[in-house]
């Protein structure tokens, strides 16, 4: 950079904040390092009003983790906030930018990369490594299979008793055996089975058992039951 930027590095790990601040000072920047928990970070940045703030986080996926970014941008909209953190999920990157961050820099980025991000943020550009964006877009466009998601949705549709019926159906029990095992009348067991089939959107016991196995619903049923 031709002219050093007025920066602030805030992280709850003092050693990390001071090390990064020292490296940036050696490159001609005016840097204030501060160690503060996320709850106090916004106040520090608002009071100092740097050009660019590098705000550290260890958990970019945690709900509300970027609330300090939103607070800074609300009170000091001229401050560009760069989030420093581990490799984020697509949701983590989206949450950072939605809160008003100017960019996201990985903890393992070289100092030259951090400086490039500062330059971009300082001039109003979005600062995020292309490889990070490519990985995020790839995951968003081709999400990894998550069989538990549908299993969880189906789990929430069933009552505990219906869930027990489904497990017994998957084990191959007929209506008479289900009734005896649960201490209910065969007609009641038959009603439970029909309700399970209806809620799962299938037409037979075999289909219900296959769906439960494919979505991981049986594993979840076991976990919830014990």
Explain what you see.
This is DNA-binding NarL/FixJ family response regulator. It holds the Pfam family GerE. With 226 residues, the protein is an alpha/beta fold. The chain is 58% helix and 13% strand. It contains 12 helices and 6 strands. Helix 2 (38-48) packs parallel to helix 3 and helix 9 (175-182) packs across helix 10 (186-200). It starts with 5 loop residues before the first strand and ends with a helix. The model has no long low-confidence stretch (mean pLDDT 84).
Overall spatial form: elongated
- Radius of gyration, in Å, reads 27 Å
Structural class: alpha/beta
- List low-pLDDT spans: none
Spatial sequence of strands, sheet with the most strands: 2-1-3-4-5-6
What is the total tally of β strands? 6
**Contiguous helical run count:** 12
Strand content: 5-15%
The chain-level mean pLDDT equals: 84
Please give the largest β-sheet. Answer: 6 strands, parallel
As a percent range, the share of helical residues equals: 55-70%
Element string (H = helix, E = strand) = EHEHEHEHEHEHHHHHHH
Distance separating the two termini: 60 Å
InterPro entries: CheY-like_superfamily (IPR011006), Sig_transdc_resp-reg_C-effctor (IPR016032), Sig_transdc_resp-reg_receiver (IPR001789), Tscrpt_reg_LuxR_C (IPR000792)
Domain Response regulatory: 6-122
Protein name: DNA-binding NarL/FixJ family response regulator
Keywords: DNA-binding, Transcription, Transcription regulation
